[in-house]
Write a structure and sequence with these properties.
The complex is a heterodimer of chains A (about 350) and B (about 210).
Chain A (H helix, E strand, L loop, with lengths): L1 H11 L3 H35 L15 H11 L10 H17 L18 H9 L2 H11 L3 H32 L4 H6 L5 H4 L13 H14 L11 H4 L9 H26 L14 H21 L5 H28 L7
Helix pairs in contact in A: 2-3, 2-12, 2-13, 3-12, 4-6, 4-12, 6-7, 7-10, 7-14, 10-12, 10-14, 12-13
Chain B lengths: L2 H22 L3 H21 L3 H25 L4 H5 L2 H23 L20 H10 L3 H22 L11 H5 L3 H4 L13 H9 L1
Classes of the chains: A mainly alpha (about 350), B mainly alpha (about 210).
Chain lengths: ~350, ~210
């Protein structure tokens, strides 16, 4: 490993940091895209079973090649530009949607030390770049030159900005108890505690002492993803497909990829902040990437489950939930945690 | 060339081009998006100066929130470029003055060795330095009262903005949400027990036909 690195350093010279970083980025993004492809398959299967259907089972054994077939189909379809659409921005829209979804993975720690950019302001980076994701939707909605697309863009930007606030507020409690903005440090902060010393590590993770915030963060995460039951952005029965209505072929696939990559990302964020990241749930098993993957899969299943179960929220009720329920709740809980940390009952010393 | 220098020139070049396009773009939406691009690259430049908190705050506050609202307003308005260009000659003297001032200030910085600016201490960061932590320490200790004062002023502004736009339209049929949530089942659903009675028993009807 070290010899490979030194020989690469000689070949690329001063450009070595760029090449090395690009190599690591490919190592993260390639499996991520594969996971995205099979998440779509898994979603269709699970929702199928929940609705007493079979789901895709024609392409390949057990339908396993279905996502590949879907990808090929989208790849070879024509990208249709609406008349009088702003062509450049029409192309930029999907790119802006998927870029933050991929860039955010830079600070997620996959295991102890397995992180692309171990920066001290990791949480701030997450908050900053996740707020950029809304541009893809706004640009797409505006550039399509369509009323439905524009309505969808307006709905989504209002919704995403609202729920970003409750997500950020919920994170403040996590920052308070961890005392760090570094994601690896946040995970390490969850391995100590009364229960961890007894072997029941999963009771020492942040979800239990910060339980209401865990709920707020998870639900706000679903709203931030614009997924059911908060999917008024697409709202098939009202505005056809929202910002994506004019997109076809690969440009549509980019939005699709962005949504599913964001789903995996939000699951990874919830696991890191509240469910102990790569930590093992019990004392006698070793920590590792496996546990992070299990937690991500469990939260993804939760996302699919609520999509199959709940009807769509009404738009004004979404706004009410975000502003009038979650924001006050997080504010109160910040105060509660602050008092708790100052009292002799502080468990985070 | 060191990698950092390469990044600096990249960010700087994109910032300058994007800033130029902000004022030359014909479409106002394009202008706003170029401004976003300029902000992004400015954040990159600040990161190179190890001011990571300021850089990320710039992206979070300006790119993530302020410019989104800006874009919103610009998209909604039907802006005619001709009308905006009309004030060009009136605003030119003031604009030229500001521009000259900026050029002068930059000249002082760039030709610093003639003004003995090099005597100023260079920016040094000790190991394990966290920009965010240092800023927070200063804000919440030395400047705690001014900081709280600023937040109260912001709160007042928020409440004022809400009060200015809060309007209840008369005659809407929407129910208050609290009322909707407080509905009990007994108020809406009435279970009625109706035994199934056949008003026209089959035998009697047949008898009628025969008669």
């Amino acid at each position: 490993m070290v010899t490979v690195m030194t020989s690469m350093q000689q070949v690329f010279g001063s450009m070595f940091p760029l090449v090395w970083a690009l190599l690591k980025i490919v190592l993260i993004i390639a499996p991520l895209l594969l996971a995205v492809a099979y998440l779509t398959f898994w979603e269709r299967k699970i929702i199928g079973w929940m609705q007493v259907r079979i789901g895709p089972n024609r392409v390949g054994p057990w339908g396993l090649l279905q996502p590949i077939a879907d990808g090929m189909k989208l790849f070879f379809k024509e990208i249709i530009f609406p008349t009088v659409a702003d062509k450049k921005l029409f192309i930029v829209g999907p790119v802006m949607a998927i870029a933050p979804a991929l860039a955010l993975w830079a600070v997620i720690p996959f295991a102890d030390g397995w992180v692309l950019a171990d920066i001290d302001a990791g949480v701030l980076y997450l908050l900053a770049l996740s707020s950029v994701g809304v541009y893809g939707i706004i640009i797409a909605g505006w550039a399509s030159n369509s009323k439905y697309a524009f309505l969808g863009a307006m709905r989504s930007s209002a919704q995403m900005i609202s729920y970003e606030i409750s997500m950020g507020m919920a994170l403040i409690t996590v920052l308070m108890v961890s005392g760090s903005l570094n994601l690896s440090a946040i995970v390490h902060g969850q391995e100590r505690g009364l229960f961890a010393s007894m072997g029941a590590n999963f009771l020492s993770w942040n979800w239990l002492p910060l339980l209401p915030m865990f709920g707020v963060y998870l639900i706000s995460g679903v709203a931030e993803l614009n997924r059911a039951p908060f999917d008024v952005v697409e709202g098939e029965s009202e505005i056809v497909a929202g910002h994506m209505v004019e997109y076809s072929g690969m440009s549509f696939a980019m939005f699709f990829l962005a949504e599913y990559a964001n789903m995996i990302l939000v699951s990874a964020m919830v696991s890191t902040f509240f469910l102990g990241g790569w930590l093992s749930p019990v004392g006698f098993l070793p920590d590792g990437f496996f546990w992070l993957a299990v937690k991500i899969a469990a939260i993804l299943f939760f996302f699919l489950w609520i999509r199959a179960t709940f009807p769509r929220y009404r738009y004004d009720q979404i706004m009410r939930l975000g502003w009038k329920v979650f924001v006050p709740l997080t504010l109160v809980w910040i105060l509660v945690v602050g008092v708790w940390m100052m009292s002799p009952l502080n468990i985070w010393k | 060339m060191e990698f950092k220098n390469f990044l600096f020139y990249l960010f700087a070049a994109v910032t300058v081009v994007a800033a130029l396009r902000v004022i030359t773009a014909r479409n106002p939406v394009h202008a706003v998006l170029f401004l976003v691009l300029a902000f992004f690259n400015m954040a990159g430049l600040w990161l190179l100066l190890q001011a990571e908190f300021l850089a990320i705050a710039l992206v979070m506050v300006y790119v993530g929130a302020v410019m989104v609202l800006f874009l919103f307003v610009v998209m909604m308005l039907d802006i005619s470029i001709e009308r905006m260009r009309r004030g060009f000659w009136n605003n030119l003297p003031l604009g030229a003055l500001v521009g000259l001032l900026l050029v002068g200030e930059m000249a002082v910085v760039l030709t610093g060795k003639y003004f003995s600016l090099e005597a100023l201490p260079a920016h040094e960061t000790p190991a394990g330095y966290s920009n965010t932590k240092e800023l927070a320490r200063i804000l919440f200790t030395d400047y705690a009262y001014p900081f709280e004062l600023a937040s109260i002023i912001l709160l007042v502004a928020i409440i004022a903005a809400v009060m200015l736009t809060l309007r209840r339209r008369k005659g809407t049929k929407g129910l208050p949400v609290a009322q909707q949530l407080n509905i009990k089942r007994s108020e809406r659903v009435r279970i009625v027990n109706m035994p199934s009675v056949n008003q026209f028993p089959a035998g009697k009807e047949e008898g009628g036909d025969q008669a």
